[in-house]
Amino acid sequence: MSSLTEFLAAQQQLVDQALDRLTPPESALPETIHRAMRYSLFAGGKRIRPVLCLQAAVATSDNAPGALEAACSLEMIHTYSLIHDDLPALDNDDFRRGKPTNHKVFGEAMAILAGDALFTLAIQTLTRIDGLDAARKLALIEELSFASGTVEGMIGGQVTDIEGERQTPTAELLDRIHRAKTGALLRASVRMGAIAARGDTQQLEAISQYGEHVGLAFQIVDDILDVEESSAALGKTAGKDAVQGKITFPAVYGLEASRAMAQDECRKGHEALRIFGDRAVRLHEIADLIVDRKS
Fold this sequence. Notes:
Blueprint: H1 4-22, H2 31-41, H3 48-60, H4 67-85, E1 95-96, E2 99-100, H5 102-106, H6 108-127, H7 134-148, H8 154-163, H9 171-181, H10 183-196, H11 201-228, H12 231-234, H13 240-243, H14 249-253, H15 255-272, H16 281-292
Antiparallel strand pairs: 1-2
């Protein structure tokens, strides 16, 4: 078996090739919007959500038509959320993945439209999957739209995050923010892979538990890195959470307790995968990587 580093590089290449195929070229009219979409979509992301989707499909079945398209739709939604997050009206950030943010290059209006376009392209991508029945396409669309939405989804989490600035940080508010803002899309990533692979009720429940625990661990580590790492290491402005009065895990629990919580969530994620046996080896490795990463 290849090393995790080699494996992830191959998976990222697979996803990038599919994203290139599914996204209109820069030469397509109107050219500016397609340049803006591609600028952020191919800015060097780790592709964690697509890889989780693909590996959840592998853990579930040998046959998962549409898993790659589902993986790409997740990256489109994730990228749209980053473009909008960086806007002056939200987090007001100048750098993302070590490059100027979308609105710094294309202007605020085009950045907003680029995010909108990636959202619609994600849904379109799911409707056009070959070899997948209409009911399963609908299930994938429902999963992605729910995880992206306002009730227990990404947008709802962003709203709570914005409204929580300068409020007294509490465990309850923190949990509401991050289970929705980050956790929902990570949970959807593995669920969509299992749905494409025609997973049964037991498999979907297990993979959902894995996604919830790993998603929470991801956000805890993100909050820790914002405190401990430099802007150069993160590829974005470090220390902004504290400046903006964000409700974070270190703010509520402190750094050491937050680290312990991330490790505990990772352990629970491993336990959730037991029913998949050796088929889930890469999901186990990704869980450890999420907790041990430095960027």
